[in-house]
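re: that chain from earlier
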Amino acid sequence: MKYTLKITLTLFILSLFTATVFAQKNLTADQIADKTYNAYKCFGDDRITTAKMDIKDKNQKTIMNREILVVRKNVKNSSKQKWYAYFKKPADIRKMVFMVWKNPKKDDDRWLYLPSMDLVKRLAGSDKRSSFAGSQFVYEDITGRYPNLDKHELVKTDDKYYEVKSTPIKTSGVEFSYYYTWVDKKTFLPTKRIFYDKKGEKQREYRVEKTKVIQDFPTITQFSMTNLQTGESTYTTYSDLKYNVGIPDNLFTEAYLRRSPRKWLKYNKK
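^ sequence. v structure.
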């Protein structure tokens, strides 16, 4: 009797494993896009890191550097998020703040604080495709583009990657016509993404340089964006990245656009 129960239990576990593997192999393009977004932008209740940007010209000579405190918090029981980016260096843009309240069902709310003018500027929806702090990244690259904004098609798959083509549902407000993403099958992190312009020519290329498991979450820690038409590029490295540190809701308010988040600027010393 015990032997029979043991065999039955083993067969049941094997059937569950087989079903899971089969389901993973037969994911739709929409499911892959959702999993990729979640793996890339949503792990943990919150996340904090220091981002260092190295902006290079077409000859790969560094022309600008940026150091930014980047904070993200998921809104409980929803797919909404809040982002806060505080510029630490260089001196000419120190204390500049970019803040976003993301909403999958409508345009995101975006603010930019310019300390030199003591001005809080509300950014229009079209500004999400503008350059982020003079880099080859646009604002939407930083906080992520919701998968429901695009139509997804699974182009190719092999042992390691899914290749997905994504085309914007609404063409107004975007400078690209479509993009391809290569997704790691194990982690669902994007490994490469190429944007194509309205003429169908390659425009920008996002590439992951390094990944690391942090607090059990597979995490991209170094990545780049290259303008394939000008040769200019930006390399970004995340350091002191931590998940689930208890970021308060009041950090994502207008009060902290003008006020330095002193406690969180020292989070890596805890």
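The CA atoms of residues 55 and 134 lie 8 Å apart.
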